[in-house]
Input
Amino acid sequence: MNRRGVLFFLLPLALLQACGDANVKNIPVEITVRRFDTDLRAAAFDTTQIPALRREYGAFLEYFSTGLIGIGHSRNPAYARLLGDFVRAPIVETAYRSVAAAFPGEAALNEALTGGFKHLSYYFPDIAVPRVYAYVSGFNEAVMLTDSVLGVGLDRFLSDTCTLYNQLDFPKYQQRNMRPARIPVMCLQAWLGSEYFPESNGEGNFLQQMIYEGKLLYVTKRCFPRLADTLVFGFTQSQLNWCAQNEATMWTYLLENQLLYINSQFTIQKFTGDAPFTAAFSPEAPGRAVNWLACRIVEAYMKRNNATFPELMARDAQTLLKEARYNP
Output
């Protein structure tokens, strides 16, 4: 990882700072990313540190060990050996070296996450604020949640030009968002979705799921008010332009094909899930274009209704659409 990658990280993060609203700035929230990745590696080479690791990270260590890297509970007699095998695996060693080069410190990430979660706490006064742990899993999960912890896999956010991702056969459309500047967006959306899910992702009809995604995007835009839409939506500028130019066409397609109330998860996923493009719209339409459309519906709703953010998250999709009076 070269210095270009580090600079690329720092410059966009400077745009993530909280706006000048004193009410937001005074929210008593500060995110400090804990380097679980380095602590875990140290314990792998000095197994006497495993009890301290267990005390420090508790349930997160067990979830990471059993659920993500599959080596079992930390009290398993074979755990020390298995942890050593994991850390010394060539792919994991490569991941650690790449993370060390791409993330020489946490200051920029701490600042960006703090700004976003200050806004989130301002808009949702009762929301819990997570502890944030960084991990390396050999290029597995990007984000991992427990009851009180948000984990971020730094090896999934090295750079959109990282040659390792080509070698690991990550699709190009995914690589575009595997960069440090996307970490705050991914973290905030994952946490918000876990705290407010009256219409859970992966459940309900087409309208419910697209509005769920639209709510997450709308709140993200408000929590990172200076962040470019390319980073909020994970689209290129040309893809955003396509969406803006074809907003009415997309909406008409959904209505004419009577898609809003279907329950086929396969069909819904083709529109709301990550993909290189949305074939039903156009080869130029980005994957998840319908989520951009849903964000526009939520924006229309919030302009017409004096709703708080918790009220927005609780509003059912059908009522929200009706009260938005959306007409692109």
Observations:
- The chain has two domains: 11-195, 206-324.
